[in-house]
Amino acid sequence: MTLDRAEAFDAADPLAAFRDRFVPADVVAYLDGNSLGRPLLATRDHLVRFVDETWGGRLIRAWNEGWTETPTTLGDTIGRVALGAAPGQTVVGDSTTVMLYKVARAALDARPGRAEIVLDTENFPTDRYVLEGIAAERGATLRWIDADPSAGVTPAQVAAVVGPDTAMVVLSQVAYRSGYLADVSAITAIAHRAGALVIWDLCHSVGVVPVELDAWGVDFAVGCTYKYLNGGPGAPAFAYVASRLHDEARQPIQGWMGSADPFAMRPGYQPATGVRQFVSGTPPVLAMLPMRDMLDLIDEAGLDAIRRKSIALTEFVLELSDELLAPLDVRVSTPRDAALRGGHVTLDHPDFQELVPLLWERGVVPDFRHPDGMRVGLSPLSTSFTEVARGLLIVAEELGAGHRKKAA
């Protein structure tokens, strides 16, 4: 019955045909699309063409034929397709860690006289570590929000800690563990009323949850591109800097490619105008190629349709968890209200750390997050309902076998 229901959902799925655009995966169920998206068939062809024609044919001349501008041209595409951002505000390059450092330092310096940074205990380690380092560098104080590990940061919690000393608030739109979907608009407005700037980490939302950075009045945002944007392992991150801040925000890593005239190579650093100033070193042109194909796919499918399927997939995971896994003492650590949930579901059980490697051996690929969470990450354009059903049936089988072994 479980598989029959899944197959019926797939038959009615308006996005089902998009699955054929991806390189076939030799697995039963890939349930980790929120960590590393699958490659597209078009990407394989485009990489070969790039080596043979653009890199191989044009050689260094290609820098003057578009490569130099890729951080901003690709940034504009991400902004249009996935961020609700007008042109000239998004730039691609570096890792999420480096991009976060840049915008956080810029935000702190743009609020002189304020020395408090608001963050939460459940944010991704990179975010917390970067901000701890900046606080130590700049003599700032960290104000911690004690977030519920099974939920996330609420507007009321932010309102309770921001004040006249708050320089910036740094949060994730979708919590990396629980999948909680924060109210970006409300929290941003609360921070602004206190005179603070806001940085949003979009790593677990870009490409799967509709985002409206301009409409929400967001100041800064960062995000990776190897999850739902399918840029590949180590693909460069992006940063969004609202145009109203371009004249006052100054990033701290002054590299030649972010200068006003990189090839003049004159003494003294003069930043480029606009978001280009947030570039530092040579753009990773080759690493930027794969995400273009996924952005085209997202543009074709439409983010609203992607979000609808994402909700349907996560609802199906919750249903199957209740039916198959709850009797085996599995707990759901993700909000059941779709309006509060991103694109993944976290299931908790004390045996999951040892179980996940066994699942991988059987071709079911979720991931594990301490202390006892198994994340089921669902990339809507590449994931079928049948895949989800087959994967969770095997989870139930392995977990049940473990229970029986312990009982014996």
From TrEMBL:
Pathway: Amino-acid degradation; L-kynurenine degradation; L-alanine and anthranilate from L-kynurenine: step 1/1; Cofactor biosynthesis; NAD(+) biosynthesis; quinolinate from L-kynurenine: step 2/3. One of its GO terms (molecular function) is transaminase activity. Keywords: Aminotransferase, Hydrolase, Pyridine nucleotide biosynthesis, Pyridoxal phosphate, Transferase. It catalyses: 3-hydroxy-L-kynurenine + H2O = 3-hydroxyanthranilate + L-alanine + H(+); L-kynurenine + H2O = anthranilate + L-alanine + H(+). SUPFAM superfamilies: PLP-dependent transferases. It comes from the Bacteria. Gene3D superfamilies: Aspartate Aminotransferase, domain 1, Type I PLP-dependent aspartate aminotransferase-like (Major domain). Pfam families: DegT_DnrJ_EryC1 (PF01041), KYNU_C (PF22580). Its cofactor is pyridoxal 5'-phosphate. Its EC number is 3.7.1.3. The keyword Zinc-finger does not apply. The keyword Ion transport does not apply. Homodimer. Catalyzes the cleavage of L-kynurenine (L-Kyn) and L-3-hydroxykynurenine (L-3OHKyn) into anthranilic acid (AA) and 3-hydroxyanthranilic acid (3-OHAA), respectively. Belongs to the DegT/DnrJ/EryC1 family. This is Kynureninase. It comes from Cryptosporangium minutisporangium.
